Amino acid sequence: MKEHTDKLDKAIQEKMHAHEVPVPSHLWDSIEARLPSQKNNSPFSFLKNPFVLSVLLIVALTGLYTYHLKHQRVQVHMDSIKVTDPDRSKNTSGNLTTYALDTKAPKEIRPAAFFYKTAANAEAAERTGTNRSIIAPALVPAHLVYTLKSPASVPAYISPVNKYKQAFSKHLRNSKIILHAADISAAILATNETSSSSLFNPITGQQALQAKSTKQKELNPVTDMPSSAAHRQSKQTEHPIHSDSIGFMQYNNHTGLKDGKSSMHKSTDTMEYPVHAYADQHANQTGDTIQHIHLRLSNTHANPADLQAGDMVYADTSILTRYDVTETVSHKEQQLQYPFFNSAYTSADVHKKAAANDTDLNTTLNIRTWQDYLNQEQITGSRNIDSTPVTESADTSFLLKTTEQTAALIEENTKHTSDFLSRCSFDGYVTPAAGYLFTAGNTNSEAVHGFAKDRNKNTDAGKSITVGIRINYALTRKLEIGIGLQYSGLQQSSSLSVANPDSTFTYQGYTVYDSIYDSTSQSYIFNNHFIPTDSTVMYFQSVEVTRYVDKFRNFSIPIHMAYGYSVTDRFSLITRTSFLINYQTYSMTYMNETDHTILGYQSHKRISVGGSFSIGAYYVFSKKCSVFAEPILMYYFSNLFEKQAPFKQTQLMLGIQTGLRLNF
Amino acid sequence: MYTEKELIEGCKKGNRQSFEFLYQMYAGRLLAIAMRYSFTTFEAEDILQDAFIKIFSAIKTFGYKGSFEGWLKRIVVTTAINHYHKDKAKQSQTDVYDMEGECDDVIDIIAKISADELLEIIQTLPHGYRMVFNMYVIEGYTHKEIAEMLSISEGTSKSQLAKGRMLLKNKLLQKGIISL
Q1: What is the pLDDT of residue A486?
Q2: Which residues pair with residue A548 across a beta bridge?
Q3: Between the N and C ends of chain B, which has fewer C-beta atoms within 10 Å?
Q4: Alpha carbon of A211 to those of A199, A215, A457, B78: distances in Å?
């Protein structure tokens, strides 16, 4: 019987093999009409791929950063200031002591700040042979700011450090500008012509001589009384008192701070200050045009003759105290001396005093230290100009004040576009999470809903892992936005509690079957691809299939906004919300509940959207590196764009996002 | 003339002309398969249309792991099965009575009639029998596979095959008697 059957089957098989029938001519037209439109071969069609698009976006941002960095780097010109040991060139002549500047034994120093303002004074420029420029070459490198953290005696520095850290742009941090000049006086003698004649005190950040420049009541910085000489001069000239004025300071950043006792004059280490910031702030206040230039070296020796009555000199530095320039010069009918250290006075005062006392200026000048100046206290009496060290209290006060001011100024500076990418940071993170896949029917069919409900009721805990990178941009100190790339996977098993729920229902679409031969079970496993169409077909569910394993892979572009709150210098709280655009691949393996034999697969790809919300904490390890942990809730919406699909499946994940943040 | 591989690659690139050539090359054979699974020529044409749309969509996934024609045929068969499920309500069972006749006679008859005539006879089989008969005898699926695809048990598949085979034999014998 079996043999006969086989013969019959074989005969039919041979007969029907390669059997062809004539095809009606209209059939191709019908098929062609239903074919999707011709594939768009646009050269930019690859941009439709969300991964390519996001990668391009990241590359573009990185490129922008690199470009920006390159073009915002401060141009630095290196010159030299050479100062020698004054003891070897000390010369006492009469009542005056002169320290000649010796260039034979150069010693490198770093002027912390040269700041200088002047009234319109062409003569001064001609005298000095310099271009008319603001000199503001030195900046505060962040690493120097950090060194300030160590002295316990100056705890107040720690607070501004954070501000520095956040506010400093990369170029400011990295532009450790070392100024060299052949002569300190060369710096002093550089001049400029600007629209304003006010002098900006780089130490205090105040408009020291604003009274002059604005033609308001001029105060004698020594007496705090109106300076009659200056006042007279301001009246005599169209411009206010001529003020070829120079601010100069240099700072010791170690010795004076470490032990809290040492004088600041004993170290050759220096600290630099963000003069640019001062200059910029000043420019903002006065409307001046500020140029950051390198020091000119037109003179190699101090030439106070280039200064004139009304000039203002600020000096505060151990170096200058030791290497002060004290030369006797003749200006008009009077001998003038310009001590460049620990002093804040006008030459008008010098004139006044000299005229009144007719004595050696060196011993009769009223000299105010910076501390005095800051405290608006007057020191009266004679004092040797080369023996007035800056007291420690003065130093401390000075540092505190300037540090705070610098922080404020630099914060202001960060508003400039040049600091754009200093606000950027990179995050890398991983998120282990528990996940839950929720299936719902997408049709009116009760069978579909019953099927989905049954599966939801019998689900195991899903396992999820998310990894990603993102680039962040701080809009403010507390608010940041960002974009990135993220992969998220979820796997979850479920089963049917009944052997065969109403297993047939209709949906719009069809399933392309493909089969894979499984050598283990020696059978074909069918792979079904769901393709939505307008036509309605029947979905059928095998009675054998009672167990499912769903796998989701989401390749996402997260766009986030975060709000942070600093609890301490190192610890911050943050809340973040993200919008996710996903390219989602989905596969479902269905198998026999009894022996878990794989019976088939279904797979699908689609675009979906999602969102996440997290609250967490950041801990700052260093200025470049932080770690964070954020409990996070992620939700992937169902296939919103596929109304025809038989099921809607949403994913919910709850995990802890941990990662590393790298700052620029 | 294009080779089969050239046509496939052309189709994978979305070339409409390649697809038309492909259609012209295989439409006759695939329509014959569709007709075996359908009652009418119209239904067979519907199946073929659907099958070609699927082929066009899925050809990118073809990886040359087996015969291309076999892959095409499988798509036509699965499309026909979908149609079968769709029209399940129309199905009716037919009682089958075994007619007396030797198997060799039937084989002789098959040899004498044309493929078109054999197709006509197959088309007269009840839907359920015909599905199983075609899938098992001509396409070579196992009962397990048939059971899975048709959402029936293996026992039902075997039973329907036996009945379908017997009915076909009867019809062939009748055909042979008439012809003779």
Answers
A1: 93
A2: A494, A590
A3: N
A4: 9, 6, 82, 95
pLDDT (tens digit, 9 = 90+) per residue, B113-160?
888 888 888 888 888 888 888 888 888 888 888 887 777 888 888 888
Contact B28 A13 (CB under 8 A): no
What pLDDT is attached to residue B41? 81
Q: Are A510 and B56 inside 8 Å of each other by CB?
A: no
**pLDDT per position as a tens digit, A475-489:** 887 888 999 999 998
Residue B11 corresponds to which tokens in the numbers above? 């189709």
What separation, in Å, do the N-terminal and C-terminal C-alpha atoms of chain B show?
A: 45
Q: In sequence order, what are the beta bridge partners of A558? A: A580
Give the closest residue to B161 by CA, choosing from B129, B126, B125.
Answer: B129
Residue A585 pLDDT > 60, yes or no?
yes
Q: How confident is the model at residue B88 (pLDDT cuts 50, 70, 90)?
A: low
Tell me if A19 and B45 make a contact (CB, 8 A cut-off): no
Cβ-based contacts of A11 with chain B (< 8 Å) = 106-107, 110-111
B100, with CB counted inside 10 A (0-12, 13-18, 19+), is exposed
- Chain A residues in contact with B54 by the CB 8 A cut-off are 510, 512, 531
What pLDDT, on the 0 to 100 scale, is given for residue A565?
Answer: 85
A53–chain B nearest CA distance, Å: 22
pLDDT in the model for residue A575:
92
Inter-chain contact B110–A16, Cβ cutoff 8 Å?
Answer: no
Q: What's residue A512's pLDDT?
A: 53
C-alpha Rg value of chain B to the nearest Å: 18
Q: Which one of A19, A20, A515 has the shortest CB-CB distance to B74? A: A515
CA atoms within 13 A on the CB side of A611: 5
Of A405, A415, A422, A466, which is closest to residue A202 (Cα–Cα)? A405
- A275-312: per-residue pLDDT in tens? 334 444 444 554 443 333 222 222 222 334 444 343 33
Q: How far, in Å, are A196, A257, A376, A378 from residue A369 at the CA level?
A: 26, 19, 10, 9
* Set of chain A residues whose Cβ sits within 8 Å of the Cβ of B153: 543
Q: Quick one: tokens of A336?
A: 């003038």
Half-sphere exposure of A117 (CA within 13 A, CB side): 29
| Contact criterion met (CB < 8 Å) for B53 and A28 | no
Please give the angle made by the CA atoms of A222, A227 and A232, to the nearest 5 degrees: 160
Pick the residue from chain B with its C-alpha nearest to A9. B137
Q: Which residue in the set A12, A41, A504 is minimally distant from B110, CB to CB?
A: A12
A chain contacts of residue B110, beta-carbon cutoff 8 Å: 8, 11-12, 15
Q: How far is the C-alpha of A641 from the C-alpha of B152, rounded, in Å?
A: 34
Average pLDDT over residues A371-375: 40
Question: Phi-psi bin for B114: left (phi > 0), alpha (psi -120 to 50), beta?
Answer: beta
Out of A28, A34, A523, the one facing B20 most closely (by C-beta) is: A28
Kindly determine whether residue A35 and residue B53, on different chains, have CB atoms separated by under 8 Å: yes
Residue among B61, B86, B138 minimizing CB distance to A16? B138
Are the CB atoms for A518 and A446 separated by under 8 Å?
A: no
**Rounded Cα distance, A519 and B115, in Å:** 35
Per DSSP bridges, beta strands A245-249 and A312-316 are parallel
Please indicate whether, in this complex, the C-beta atoms of A600 and B148 are within 8 angstroms of each other: yes
Instruction: Mutation target for B interface from A1, A4, A20, A511: give the one with most B CBs within 10 A.
Output: A20
What is the pLDDT confidence band of residue A498, given thresholds at 50, 70 and 90? low
Q: Is the pLDDT of residue A642 over 60?
A: no
- pLDDT tier for residue A133 given thresholds of 50, 70 and 90: very low
Which residues of chain A does B100 touch, with a Cβ-Cβ cutoff of 8 Å?
none
Q: What is the 3-state secondary structure (H, E, C) of A248-296?
A: EECECCCHHHHCCCCCHHHCCCCECCCHHHHHHHHHHHHCCCCCCCCCC
Q: Is the pLDDT of residue A320 over 80?
A: no
